[in-house]
Amino acid sequence: MTKIWQKPEIISWVQIILNSYRQLLDRELFDRTGDELTQSENLFYLDRVVYSHNNSSDPIYNYSNQKGLELWEMDWQQLTTTPSRMTTQPLLREEREQLLQETIAKGYIENYQGIRISRTGKKYQIKDITVWNLTDNKGKFCGQAATFSRWENLTT
Description:
CATH architecture: 2-Layer Sandwich
CATH topology: Beta-Lactamase
CATH class: Alpha Beta
Structural class: alpha+beta
Shape: globular
Order of helices and strands: HHEEHHHEEEE
Radius of gyration: 15 Å
Number of strands: 6
Number of helices: 5
CATH superfamily: PAS domain
Largest sheet: 6 strands, antiparallel
Number of domains: 1
Distance between the termini: 38 Å
Strand content: 25-35%
């Protein structure tokens, strides 16, 4: 069975994530050694959360690495059918939307923090988040990605 990170469409999407990060932040998300397949595997197993959503009016998650899937308590099928707003509590969705709009305008945001919820309702304070715009190889906006390595479980 083909693993998620081995699928051609995921390998291509990982390049968009990594290239957009490098272009906007002038540094690499991680050491990009090896070919595109190796980079896809390395991102999937990176020891920090990385996820992205598409550019629809109600963005849907289209990528998460293993750490993100574990944190959101979802499998790949669940993730890729979930609007990204659903990992934010309803009262905090306006704040999240402002963050996404600011990211669209500026290209990226660093040092953001917020409260997110998993599929089963666990709450997390996620910290030191970087959010950036994704563009394809023609420069067309195609979504946004985020990464963070620090979070704290919150009691409900």
